[in-house]
Amino acid sequence: MSHYHKEGAGIDPCNPVSMLKAQVLKYLSRIPSDRRLSLLLKRNKQAAEACGFTKQKTPSHGLFTHFRHRLGKDGYEKIFLLLLEKHLKCEAVKGEVVAVDGTAIKAYSQRSLDNKTGKSDNEARVGRARRGFILGYKVHAACCANSELPLAFVVGSCNMNEKRFVNPLLEKLKEQGVCFENCFG
User: Fold this and answer.
1) Domain with 169 in it
2) pLDDT tens digit string along 79-125?
3) Is 1 part of any domain?
4) Residue 59 falls within a domain, yes or no?
């Protein structure tokens, strides 16, 4: 909350917890854009109140984009680790049996002329997916097999083999204090 002012010029800040709840709602409801999320919150009083907004004061789509960029990769990882720590303390997640898998995510870019990278996304790579090849990334996750909740994740380019990410994921689990007995890939 320290990044957000309470006085002076500009509009009143939105509560960052409410903004994060709205981002979770966006992904769980498969809302494709910030613009559609903003419209949903303006039109649906229950959704707005569940996130912590009043119907009269819901954020614009630009504010959601700004929030996501301001929070950044490190901010999302810190939130993930805090939530994981709370779940481990209350034993909602035990992590005795861990499942490791990777999922391809398509990049919003066209292939460049070399047919290996993206035009507007230089970090995206062409790699195998379920049905053929895609340009994008792979999210490699280690999940608790009992609760099905994620314990650790690594994002890599799509052309890298999943075997390369198993050891870093298991090391992350050990750093976070997860004592697993079995691991399945």
Assistant:
1) 93-184
2) 988 988 888 888 888 888 888 888 888 887 888 888 788 888 888 88
3) no
4) yes
